[in-house]
Amino acid sequence: MANFLIFFSVLFIFFSIPVTSLLNELFFPGFKGLGKNLTLKGFAEIENNGILRLTNDTSRLQEVIEDWELDVGPQRYTYQELKKATKNFSDKELLGHGGFGKVYKGTLPNSKIEVAVKRISHESKQGVREFVSEIASIGRLRHRNLVQLVGWCRRKSDLLLVYDFMSNGSLDNFLFDEPKTILSWEQRFKIIKGVASGLLYLHEGYEQVVIHRDIKASNVLIDNELNGRLGDFGLARLYEHGSNPGTTRVVGTLGYLAPELPRTGKATAGSDVYAFGALLLEVACGRRPIEHKALPEELVLVDWVWENYRERKFLDVVDSKLNGEYDEAEMVMVLQLGLLCSNNAQLARPSMRQVVRCLEGELEVPEIVGAPGALDGGNNGKHVVDGFDDFMNSFASSSFEKMNSHSFQENSAPYASLSTSPFSLLHGRGETR
């Protein structure tokens, strides 16, 4: 069928039949020491008189490695490995998709380890940039509450990331749209504390400050032990500790975007804290930050929670799917922290270190003296906003009225005035509703 002639670095193949239709099928075992069978498609050229020309210039076969790739920590997989792992990126293996690509379940051919493979969308104009960002930011991160990046692949315009597979999926599947499994409050509180710990590590525990920029329930993955792990670092930005973050394009998800971002263009730890505040309220209330199907007064979650706080019906916002089974003190603390983190004034928000200390019971949550949107530095700059540290300092020296926890229940005994911290009204942390 074919005769072979090798001339310098070029292999000429003379066929006695037309070969155009055979390019998808013909292969050579270990051509020129490559150690693998190669199909001819993409690497052969048909010349006159039915001659097939195959060169040993493997630059067309190899993935071009750029300088930044040499410093990347996780394992680099071949495209064929990941294609096989995901069954040719089958729709049946699709776990989810977002603005920057699709995520597939895969099983690595050799180790049989289950992974999640994120394939960056071709249509994404920022695809390569987001890919480089994610590789650079999480390739060396190590924390039990972060989704571990185990490998990656880049083949021309195909950009792929390989993560630990989280069999329980993302947190939003347990909170919204009539979930099949209802998380108990104990499980939710554990997830909240875990994500807070992971975010503190990003802000303070790594060699650089890592700003996630896309904290939300769908980016919190749940492992087999129901721990919350923060994932999807495709929008992350890094800068040195103590330096001033540079301006960047505004990205994120509506309902989680800090109000200063459109004005300053600077993503900071404070803007991450704002998004984490939305996450806290999501977990406690079982609904999204913006619920289009809700009544007009309940459209924006943080405003709805604040109004119920102001009207002395704070616990009316608690997720009804919990059936009243939760620790009151923990619930009130989470709702308060959600409001404090959601303050329009960046300085009035707590740091993640302060949030973690509150969640661990090392700090009392300070009182809320105004609506989250009231302290935004508006009114032509006439409002002066104290920082959260000032709140904490004044809180320590304040005296609060002590009452039994039953006075906190809806529409029953007298409720605290707005100058009194609802958290201080609760006697201990062990009582449940």
UniProtKB/TrEMBL annotation:
InterPro entries referenced in this protein's UniProt entry, alphabetically = Kinase-like_dom_sf, L-type_Lectin-RKs, Prot_kinase_dom, Protein_kinase_ATP_BS, Ser/Thr_kinase_AS
Q: What is this protein called?
A: non-specific serine/threonine protein kinase
Localization (cell): Membrane
Source organism (scientific name): Acer saccharum
Q: Which residues form the Protein kinase domain?
A: 89-363
Q: Which GO terms describe its molecular function?
A: ATP binding; carbohydrate binding; protein serine/threonine kinase activity
Q: How does it sit in the membrane?
A: Single-pass type I membrane protein
Keyword Glycoprotein carried by entry = yes
The entry assigns this protein to a family as follows:
In the N-terminal section; belongs to the leguminous lectin family. Belongs to the protein kinase superfamily.
The reactions it catalyses are: L-threonyl-[protein] + ATP = O-phospho-L-threonyl-[protein] + ADP + H(+); L-seryl-[protein] + ATP = O-phospho-L-seryl-[protein] + ADP + H(+)
User: Which Pfam families does the entry link to?
Assistant: Pkinase
What is this enzyme's EC? 2.7.11.1
| Top class in the EC scheme | transferase
Which UniProt keywords are listed? ATP-binding, Glycoprotein, Kinase, Lectin, Membrane, Nucleotide-binding, Receptor, Serine/threonine-protein kinase, Signal, Transferase, Transmembrane, Transmembrane helix
Q: Where does ATP bind?
A: K118
Question: Looking at the UniProt record for this protein, which Gene Ontology cellular component terms does it annotate, in alphabetical order?
Answer: membrane
